[in-house]
Amino acid sequence: MTETKSIIDLAKAAEARPAPTETEHAHRPSPQEGAPKEENAPREVLSELLKNVQSKIGWSELRLPSAGFNSSKVETIEIRPFTYEDEKLLRTTKTLSQGELIVEQLITRCIKGIEYKDLLLTDKNYILFKLREISYGDGYDIKATCNMCESENELQVELSKLPVVYAESEGDLEHKITLPDSKVEVIVKALKIEDEALLSNPATLIDNMWRLVESIGGHKERTVKQGFIQGTTAKDISVIRNSIFGGGIGMQTKVNYICNGCDSRDVIELPINEGFFDAN
Question: For 148-157, what is each residue's pLDDT tens digit?
Fold first, then answer.
């Protein structure tokens, strides 16, 4: 039967073991001698290979279109380009619902200084276009169909040259409009991340339009806003809807171009197509 030794027994045995001779010391390799020298080589090689991209993958400052008049009072954040892990996450998208969640995850990972949930929609959209620009390049290829001759035009938009309108006061976050038929003043509020789900389709937008309106004729009560929208003309409703989506602060994404087919001037709302997150 094998004798069971305690930790104390093993420690005493180690103390009693004779010290190694000089010859044993001479032949015993040191940790430095035994370590393979090749282990440091890959790091040095990678450092040399990646030296030209170090300046392209760091954090940089970005001023938000809301310019500090948002609820968080944040004017400037930090942003970085996509990395290998971000690209890997992006390519796992298989459905629209997954895509929306992954965009949220990507923006959260690539910005510092503000919480995703506190972003205004206009700030979020601006960040999205800037991430595309700094990650895949300034040039963005799109196609536009002419409204006059229906010719298809291949265009390249330089994202860095699109104008950006910044808020100069808290009032700039809202849209004040006077409706054409009712002659009533309507204030459309600054849309937040939580409002994005209400824009998912035309029917949802119409049903929830009152939620996106701050006041109608000075009235903020839900019943007044709902009753007015349901009772006014289609023209008034169309103007409210267009105000929700257009104008105001942020990146101006209407692109003017001259048709290659008929030389007429046309305009297109900059789309997010299948090549948005891709290098040209």
Answer: 999 999 999 9
pTM for this entry = 0.79
Amino acid (one-letter) located at 168:
E
Using DSSP, how many helices (H) and how many strands (E) does the chain show?
11, 12
Name the residue ranges covered by the structural domains of the chain.
56-140, 168-248
Nearest to 82 by CA among 17, 135, 125, 155: 135
b/e for 232-257, b at 16 or more Cβ within 10 A? beeebbebbbebbeeebbbbebebeb
Structure tokens at 128: 């999205």
CA distance 141 to 138: 10
Give φ, ψ of 254 to 5 degrees. -85, 125
Letter string b/e over residues 167-193, b meaning 16 or more CB atoms within 10 A of that residue's CB: beeeebbebebebeebeeebbbebbbb
Name the least confident of 18-27, 96-105, 117-126, 141-150. Answer: 18-27
